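Repro:
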Amino acid sequence: MTESLVVRSKIKEYVKDMNVAGDFSDALSKKCESLIKEAIERAKANGRRTVQSRDL
């Protein structure tokens, strides 16, 4: 298992009065990983070694 990119306590803090399922943070972390990988590929395709917000 890879290290999570999200902080569970911050998710719970953000959703306030809602409950958070145990697997939610893992799914969110995987989604973040996917977005970051896509951003890296876009930066490389544009000849850059810096990932920028516009790559999202």
